[in-house]
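I hope you will forgive my troubling you with a question about protein structure. Could you please explain, in whatever detail you think fit, how the structure tokens follow from the sequence? Thank you for your consideration; the sequence and its tokens are set out here.
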Amino acid sequence: MSAAARSVPTPSPEAVARDAHWARKLARLRARQLPEQTLRICDDLAVKKRLEQAKLDVARCRVADAEAERSTSPETERAEQNLAAAQAAFDEASLTLTFKALPRPVLDGLIKRFPPTEEQAEEGDAWNPETFPAALIAAAHVERDAGGRVVEGLSEEEALELLDSWSVAESNALFAAAWQAQQISRASTVELGKD
């Protein structure tokens, strides 16, 4: 066998460039963070109403400015300042719970861990609606300290306690926030060949 036949072929510069391109893209794909959904709870109805009114006032002022074909009026500037203050008060009075999408195998495993009863399955449930919600809430909940570090969050028992002690609407909102985190898609597709 000749030396030329035993040598490893040198890849073309184009092939090397493609490999580097793919390596960068794959690194970005692997480094993506899972999406998050935040539930905001504000028990101070006056603060909440003030924020809603401030948003309406800003919208009304901006429409008036647009209809008058003018830049931001002093009234709009005051309304925007009131909105900023109302938003700050709302943020201060509110509690937030953040939920993060689970990797697909983890979510699949969680669903399998809480299968529906025979009767629930006949009604179309994919999981046990009595036990799965608390487990999902606990698994998806992400709590961060003031420095942004992840710290221990809700346990299944604590999630179940909240679900059982809150009103139906708020319990549903709690589960919906955890479930919606699993449904967020930041991907879009482009159909090629169409003009």
Q: What stands out?
A: Strands lie at 36-42, 94-100, 141-144, 150-151.
